[in-house]
Structure formats: structure tokens, C-alpha cells
Amino acid sequence: MAHGGMGKGKGPARLNLKDSWTVFKRLFKEIGNFRTHAIIVAVTIIIHAVMYAVATMYLKEILSFIFDRALTNDPERFIGLAKMMGVLIALYLVSVISLTIAARLTLTLSTSMLCELRIKMFKHMQNLPVSYFDNNLRGDIMSRYTNDTDAIRELLSNGFKELIHATVIIISVFVSMLVLSPLLTLVVVGSLVIIGILVVIFTSKTGKYFIRIQEETASVNGYAEEYVSGQKVVKVFCHEDVIIKGFEEKSQGLRKMGTKGHTYSHMLMPLLGNISYINYATVAMSGAALAIHGYLGPITGAIATITMFLQLSRQVSRPVTIVSQQFNSVMMAIAGAKRIFDMLDEPVEADEGYVSLVNCEARCDEIKECEERTGRWAWKHPHKQLGTTTYKPLDGDIVFENVNFSYVEGKPVLKNVNLYAKPGQMIALVGATGAGKTTITNLINRFYDIPEDSKIRYDGINIKKIKKADLRKSMAMVLQDTHLFTGTVRENIRYGKLDATDEEVEAAVEIANATSFISHLPEGLDTMLTADGSNLSQGQRQLINIARAAIADPPVLVLDEATSSIDTRTEAVIQQGLAQLMEGKTVFVIAHRLSTVRNADAILVIENGEIIERGNHEDLLAQKGKYYELFTGLYTWE
Amino acid sequence: MIRKLAPSVKQYKGYAILAPICVVLEVLCEVFIPFIMTKLVDNGISMQNMQVVIKYGTVMISLAILALGFGLLSARFTVVASMGFGANLREEMFRKVQNFSYANVDKFSTGSLITRFTTDVGFVQMAFTILVRIAFRAPVMLTLSVIMIFFINPIIAIIFLVSIPVVWGSIILAAKFVVPLFEKLFDKFDNLNNRVKENLGAIRVVKSFVREDHETDNFRHAAEDLKNAQVKAEKLLVYAGPAMNILTYIITILVVWLGGIKIMKGEMSVGGIAGTIGYIGQFLMSLLMVAMVFVNLFMSRASAKRVIEVLDEIPTIRDDEADANLKVKEGSVTFENVSFKYKADAENDVLSNINFEVLPGQTIGIVGGTGSGKSSVVQLIPRLYDVTEGSIKVGGIDVREYKIDELRQAVGMVLQNNTLFSGTIEENLRWGDMDATQEEIEKACKVASAHDFIMGFPDGYQSMITQEGTNVSGGQKQRLCIARALLKKPKILILDDSTHAVDSTTERAIRDAIKKDVAGTTLIIIAQRIASVIDADKIIVIDDGKINGIGTHKELMKTNDIYKEIYSSQQGGVM
Fold first, then answer.
1. Which of residues 276-295 of A touch B (CB under 8 A)?
2. Which CATH architecture has domain A398-635?
3. Which value does ipTM take for this structure?
């Protein structure tokens, strides 16, 4: 497609705190459908963490029970110990069971939610206008289904669990500290603030670099993809060395960014671990100083307090580390979610149409709507103000009235185009490449919308009033770029009519004159096609495309350079089939070959977005205008 | 495997050696710290001795700072080494791939090669990091903690020793069971990605057949398949966390129970049990780390294998024995009994027994139906593929005797499915001649009828082309590709159906201009339109991989049925 988008670059998304929070809240809402799951997960994790904290404290009780009774001969002591062990085991059991439940439910939650999210994205994507696909890189859209959803999954399956767990422990440790000594707590908090600041600096650096690493990876990927796919051209021009140099540059870019980013992430662990030791020593020294000066009450109590504090301050450093690590995955998930939401927020194709396409009974003067497929169609046109519904037969009468159009503002592609196609007529569009032929067909089925002052009428109805799906169902397109789907040949043909019988498929194959080549395929119609049908030649793929259009059998047919990639002998054969297919239909043909065009009822010569000549072959030759020039250009040459 | 990949560390060898040394020093410092910690509490705080507190506190802080220093250094060295190692591997692979023949690339497929460049290298890189950092750290920690516990109480140490094979055994067992499930999971991922990719490419088809719902249904299946595979594969893994928890709890309970009884009976010191409990965490952590090292190495083994496969692949088209001084003197082309098939084990030849001769400066046309083998004939000339039997001579010498670069420099070719690359128009054109002047570039574009439309773009020759040239029309792309080939000033110029998207008036203008511009260059034109080759010196009709007829237009019109048929099918003319 030759429009717009030249040199369109895309900067990396930078998120500020406020946006992040908005995205985060929305991501939370997406969990909506699995709220029960999410709540159970949260509750069980909290239970697990609380039980763990309680068990840790109870363990200390057991130890002091043991110390108190060491070397005594209290006969009850073993029973006492056994009882306490029973309680400990019970606490442990509850903790493990709730963790198991949480782990299992987290898996269900994260996979189900992402499955739903992916389906939601895809469904939304199906309704986006063609311009979205023309203006966005495929790889970029693809990465929303892979990298971005993965980042969210990482947060869901690991991040939240760890965050909740760590928070509960941090809170319980702080409560115990405050109860023991508010003064010493201040000392611990002081060093934790340092840890916190370090963590924020490092993780934000890491986060920033990891986004850059992803960009660099994407760039290496893109480069490799482009040049490995274009390998033949590289070889033909002996450009291997230049390409290798280019790849090395990209690869070194990734290496440098990777070194920076990973340095920060690898440094965090030794940093935090050793700061917690420094913290320990600081607490010990300042605790001792405070105790000696009598700030911690009587000296024996003070010693116990400091000892407890030292243990608690060791306990708190691990969850702080965990929170710091998860901070990064939260940021990654938010960045991913942002890109996903951006796509979900893209406005879908506008469809204000209310006229629908219905089957009607055959052999009947008055149009009567019916359910089954009769092969006869009518437009059902409800009139709101009158409260009535009128029917109009689907004939395939198309009129362009003063159509102006541009893909990019200020660069008109079509200028004041007027054209009409009577039912059953074949209209040929000829003209130089880039004159605007394909644009005309893009407008008929509303891949792109025309401005307010332009009008296209279909059987007298403004196409904007027709439901898009019904409008498109009423016409089939055979494009120059052939696209086949992974699946059998039969499935690909059936794409035109999903409930087609085997006989219908074979009939369509017959029309497209594809019978002979398909019978040569290893498994005939049931041969699997892979990767856009790459195991077939261009011409063969086009034959399947034509069969696909034939099976849909709509009243309007658009052939955009449908046969330009097929050799003329094969084309001649297809033409017979197409002639059969085109009978009684309104057909728009864009073609280079005159053999395709000369039988048209009307030939429109387009130049720079304007129709400069209209008439049938003989008329146009008689006019001695552009068409004559094009035509005779060939013949004088012979 | 390690021996195979290790040399790629190259210039980062110093870092790779320093990193584990720093790790060991860091661990040693760290091991002393808990010891000082006990001293600080027992001798300082409990004894209310401020001097001792300050002494041990200072020692501890110094050790921590030392450990921190080594930690930071080891982190830095490891990262520099592993990233450098990854980059080296990636570049070696890419260089290798540039020497691949098309058959080599086909063997791997483009997609798979790209995965190897990034994802697989990533895994190998990760394994390298783990080897350098954790593989040195965890065993040292593990051994030291077990030794410490032995000193406290040998019987309790047995609990720890028993848990080692239990943990490692279950991890290995789980890995054996889970790895195949993960392979299936990756297939499902590919499947999902392919669905999206296909849909993106064919969105116009989807929309014109109003198959959005059908596609969404298909996608839903793929997404749900993926979900189910995910649940199946990870079901076992999610229990790893609770399992570790259970293990910690069981060991704690046993230690407290056995230790408690021993203490109460007076068989063990009071401090011993607290110390032992303190070591449980450290022990299990390092135990798990050692296991994770193995699992990670196991998992990245597949990636390492895939990287090595590329490095070990032998290019099927080589020029090791070619004479570097041999130059292509003139543009004659001779096919002698050439037979060709794409795969050695294929049943039928794509081309069989092709014989023809082209003199320097002649123009040759090749016509024939879709799939008859026209493109295969010309791709053999610059050795994009090698003949299966027979020989091809360029300038009177077998193409296999030239250095590949020399041969390809002499042969310009515009391929049927030609590619432009992302970059400016000028950059793309310069592929033909890196040192071309602006005049030369413009001249080539004028010959290819491309100059006018290029000047029509807002940025002229500096306009950006998107990947695969999707932002120029088919006809424009073909003309740019022709200009690019012309800039190369080849001795032989091959146009493989390279003007079918150009209207015929322009096409004729291009052909006439080329003839004038490159008089003396051998021109081989594959065409669908008879008009394109009608005044060639010789026209070759190919049918089903064989030569059906050779002659001028007039001769073939008399003698060749296929040619006559093609001609009459185009009698309506071509627009």
C-alpha cells in the first residue's frame, strides 16, 4: 500500500507516576472476572504470612521453654515440649495449606486472566480499521501479545504473592519492634530508609535500562529478520560484509545496554545483603550505647531487648529486598499493560449503519425476507421516523458522487471522482501505478471512509447507512497480495463460505481452474498449507484465492491485479473461470493486461486521482486520448 | 559443549577469570560475618562490654564493606563477561549465517535462526552468569553450613545430610517430567503467535469476507490451548514453593524436638540449637541454589545445542578452493547439460538437461508458465544455488571456479520477489555501488524511470523506506530495484519478471533505456509478457523444467506451439 507513514518513528513510552497509577488501577479492574479467585489468593497469602510470623515468634517461646527447663528434672517437661510442638506443627500446617491453595489458584488466575485478556485484545483488534494495520508495524502489534502479556503474567504469578507476603512480614516485625522499644526502632528505620533509597535508585535505573534492553533486543531481532529474509538480495549484491558490520553495531548496542542494566540488577543483591550487616552492627553499637546511658530501662531487660532487636532487624532485611525486586516487575507490568490498553483504546471501525442484508424468497415480485439461503438478497432499510421498513433488492448498482479522499491530510489521492456501475456491468480501472485505482476499491467496501461531502451509493443507499459487515458480505475481493491461512486447501477455500459443502468447494475449484494443480498436491484438497502458503507458487496461491471468492458468490466482485502474477497462459484459463464467476455480477477490475480489460462495459482511465476518460474499448480508441496512447503504444511497437 | 562455546569469551577472558575470584573472596568475608555477630552478642552485649561491642561492630562493618566491594566487583565483572560472551556468540552466528547458502537457511528457517540470535543466546548467557557467580557461591556456602552444624551436633547434621538427596532427587525428577510439558507449551506459544501474525498480514482478507468472528473463535481456541498447556506444565512447579516450605518446617520441627530433648537431658549446649536453626535457612537456600544451577544448565543445554548447530553448519556453497585472482572477463553464459533440484533427495528434477549459450552483449528472453523453472535457471548463474549435474560457465569458466564475490559482482540480478530494506532510498540504491556519485545514482534512476517519482516524494532521495518497502507501490519498488542493480554496472544483468507491476509504457521505456545505457552487458529477461522479450536475440521457452524451444520471435512463432499459445493469449495486448 502506497500511502503515508513514511519515516514514521516511534519513541519509547515514558510513564510518569500518575499515569502508572491509572494503568495499575485499570489492570486491577481487568482482574474483575476472577475477583473471587483474587480475593481467595490474597486472603490465603495473608494467612500464610501471618501464620509464618506467628510460628516464628512461637518458636522463640519454645526455645525459651527449653532453656528454662534445661538441666532441671521436671517430669512434665517432655510432655510440655510435646504440647508446644503440637501447636507449632498446627501453625505450620495452616501456613503450608494456605500457601498451597494460594499457589494453585494463582496459576489458574494468571493463566485465565491472560487468556481472557489476549482474546479481548484480538477481538478488539479485529474491529480496528484497516488504517491501524497500515500505520503500525506488525512486530510492534505482535509484541503486545507476547512480551507485554508476559510482563503482566510475571507480576500476577509471582509479584503480588511476594509483595503481600513481604508486606505482612515487614508489618509484623515493625509491630514487635515498636512494642519492644520505639527508640531503637528509629535507629532501624533510619538504616532501612537508606536501603529504601538505594533500592529505589537501583530499581528505577534497572527498570529504565531493561526497557532499553528490550528495545535493543527488538532492534537486533528486526535487523536479523530483515536481512536473513532478504538473504538472496544480500548475496546478489555481495553485501555480506556490510550487513555483518551493521549487525555487529546492533549487537554491540545490545551488549552495552545489557551490561549497564544487568550491572545494576546484579549489584543490588550484595549491596542489600551487606548493608543489612552494617545495619546489624549499627543497631548493636547504638543499642549498647543507649543501654549504658540508661535509655532502655533496667540493664538486664535492655540486653534482652537488644538481642531481640538484632534478630528482628535481620528478619526485616529480606522482605525489604523482595519488595525492592518486585518493584521492578510492577513497573514492567505497568509498561506492558499501558501498551495493551493503548491498543484496546484504539477506536474501532465506526459503524453507524443500520441497513442490513437479508435473504429473500426467490421467484417473488414482492420481496419477502426469509431465513434460509436462497441466493437472492435484499437490503432491509428501517426508517426510524416513519417507523416502517422497506426492502430493496441487492442488485450491485454502485455510484460515486464527487468523491474526494486522502490518506494523509493535504495529499489528495482522489479528486472529485464520479463513477457509476450498473448491475451486472464490468468496470475496469486503468492507469499508472499510484494513480488511485486501489484506493477506489478501498473505499467501496469502506476499508477507509470518505469525507462528509463525498458520497458512495450502493443500490441507491448511502454506504455509510449500510452495516459494514453486510456491505462487505455483498462483495468479494481478490487482491494481488495473496494471503492464505495455515490449514488445508479445503479450509482455505471454505473461508469464503464457512458452511460450504464438499461439492460446493469442488465446484469453486473448478471455476478457478485449480482442479489440475490441486490434484497434483500430495493430499489434494486436504494438503496442509503452512506459513502463508509458502509451499505453493504465487500463481497457485492466487488460484486458491479465486476459488475462495468463487465460493462466497456475492453480487459484487473486486479484482485488484488478481491475475498479474500469473502467466498469461494460466491467466487465459482462469479468465474463462472468472467469466463464469462474473456473469450477472457487478465487477470492478484493476489490471495491467488489456486482455482482462477490453471486454469491460466501461473502462475508466485514472490519472493523478482523477478520472480522465470513460467509455468502452471501442469508444476510447475512437477518442484517441490517453487510453489510445497506452493501447497503441504497444501496437506500433510490434 | 562448554569446550565448544568457551573460546567465544575472547577479549572478555580477563573478566571471566576475575569474576569467580571475587565471588570466592566475597563468600569468605560473608562467612566470617555471622561468626563475628555471635561474638558481638555473646561477649559484648551480654557481658555489657562496650569496648568489645565497638571492636566487633567495627570489624563487622569493615568486613561488610569488604564483602560489598568484592560483591560489586564480581557483579560488574560477571556482567561484562557474560554480555560480551553473548555478543560474541551472536555475531559469530550471524557471520556464519551470511556464508550460508539458501539450502542452509531453508534447513533452519528464518524464524528459527532469529530465535537463535536472541532467545537462545540469552539462555546461554544466563547459564554463563550462573556458572560464574552462583556455581562458585552456593557449594561453598552449602559445605560451610554443613560443617558448622557438624561441629554443633553430628546427629542433627544427619537430618541435613539426608535432605540433600531428597531435594536434589525430587528436583531432577520434576525437571524430567516438566521439561517435555514445557516444550509442548512453547509449541502452543508459537501457534498463538502465528495466528496473530497471519491475521495481521491478511487483515484485508479477513475484513472483506467479514470473518472477524471466525478469526476470533480460532484465536480463542489457540489462547485456551495455550492456557491449558500452561496450567498443565506449571501445575507441578507451583507446588515447589509450598514443598520448600514443608521441608523447612519439617527440619525445624525435627531440630527443635531432637535438640530440645538433648538440651533438657543435658547432652547439648543451649547456644547450639539457636545456631542450628539459624543455619536452616542458609543451608536450604544454598541447597536450592545448587539444584537451580543444574536445572538452569539443563534447560540452557538445548539452547547451547541450537547455537552450536548454527556454528557447526557447513555452508553448502563454498569457494575455498577458488582462485582469488580469477576475474570475470566478459558476460557470456553457457549452460551445459544442467540438471537441478532444490533438495538432493527430491524425486523430480526442477530443471533437466538445460543447454544454451549466450554471447556477451546479447539479450536473451526466457518465457514459460508459472512453475516451469524459469527463475531456477537464472538463480544458478550467480550461484544462489549450485547445479546438481552439468556445469554453467560465465566468461568461459565454470562458475564454481570463481570466488563467489567476484562472480556475484559481475552478475546483476533483479529478483522476482525483490526486497528493499529499511533506510533511505539513497541507502537502498547504494547497495549497487557504495561509492556511486549523486549523478550516477540519478542516472540509474532515470534509466529505471524512478527518478520522477522519487523527486515527487517530500524528501526525494532521502525519503525513508519501511521494512520490505511496504510504503512504496509494487511498481515503484520494482523500479528502485532495477536502479539498484544498474548501479552495480554488471557484466550480466538478469531481470526476473521484475516489471510486472509496472505499466507497459513505462516498462518499455525502462527496457529501451537499459539497452542504451548498458550496451555490451548481457541481458537476460524473464517475462510473462511476450512484448517484453519480443526483440531479444534469442528467446528460450521453458516448459516443465526443460527447454521446449530456442529461437527468435519469428522462428518460435513458426515452430513452437507453446510460444504461439502464449502469444495468442496476449493478443489482446497488455496495458
1. 277-278, 280-282, 284-285, 287-289, 291-292
2. 3-Layer(aba) Sandwich (3.40)
3. 0.80
